[in-house]
Structure formats: C-alpha cells, structure tokens
User: What shape does this take?
Amino acid sequence: MLKGFKDFLLRGNVVDLAVAVVIGAAFTAVVTSFTESFLEPLIGLVGGGGEAGGSVTVDGQVFTWGSFVNQVITFVLTAAVVYFVVVTPMKKLVERRAKGEEPGPVAPTQVELLVEIRDLLRAQQGRGPGADPTGPGTTSLPGQL
Assistant: This one.
C-alpha cells in the first residue's frame, strides 16, 4: 500500500497536481484560521489594544499594519510546513533513488503497453478485450513481439 502511494506521489501528472492544490488550499485555511484567531489579537494588543489595535490613522486614512503582519505570518507558516512536510522528504527520496538505495516506480513493458492499446482499440470498436498476449500468433521470447 505504501509503495503504491509512493509511486503515486512520484508520477508527475495533472491529477497529482490537482490533489496538491486541494490539500494546499485546505492547509492554508487552517493556517489562516490560526493566525486570525490567535496571532491577530496578539498583534492588536501589541499595537495598543482595543478596536484600533494594529492600525494607525493619519489624516483620516486607516493603515492596518496588524492585518499585513498577520498575512506575512500566515505565508511564512504555510511555506515552512510545505517545505518541511513535502519538499524535504521528496528531496531525500530523490537522492536515495539517485544513489540506488531505493528503486523507482516500475515502468510497464512493451507487451503490456501494446496489450492495453489493443484492448482500448477493441473497446472503441465495441468488441471485448483480447486474448492472452502469449497466445497463438505471438512469441514467448522476451523482447520480441
């Protein structure tokens, strides 16, 4: 099960990217909630407390520096978690594969790919899947079709 999940993570395609975007958005919501619930009130207290905490008014213009600091903290926390939870483990995995310590995902053989193509063509024509690829009319020698 873990090997399949690891192979899934290492295949680069659109589905993987979509999953990453959804997880990233969900995690960003968690970090945003944390900063709004806990850090923003602390920033307001440091800035003088009350409704005006974390803001300055100059000639009728309100500058909400506390909100900006909150967004910077949200960004830094999100970037740190993504780096330590995703980037660092993937980098170590790629390094181990480059050294040969861990095998990469197994690519399908030519015969498997051709059988899949044949079955897809038959399905488009309304016929069922083909017979065993080692049946009559095929060779059983490796590497020959």
Notes: Helices lie at 2-10, 14-46, 65-99, 110-124.
